[in-house]
Amino acid sequence: MGAICPKGKHSKGRRDRRRAQSWRIPVMSLVTCPKCGEIMRSHRACRKCGTYNKREVLKVAE
Questions:
Q1: Whole-prediction pTM value?
Q2: Where would I find the H helices in the chain?
Q3: In degrees rounded to 5, what are phi and psi of residue 18?
Q4: What is the pLDDT of residue 23?
Q5: Residues 33, 46: contact at Cβ < 8 Å?
């Protein structure tokens, strides 16, 4: 039975810090588009000019 039980009591702070990590809200990473300079989410096509990785992947109606 020794491996089943923990060796000591964890404090409420340690328990709450562990539980808080799984419910973290991720922060969006924003970058500027290399072609037009618009702020956009990383690893996605630019909504203004339609480029991704220096190639045009979307046709944007202007």
A1: 0.54
A2: 12-22
A3: -65, -40
A4: 73
A5: yes
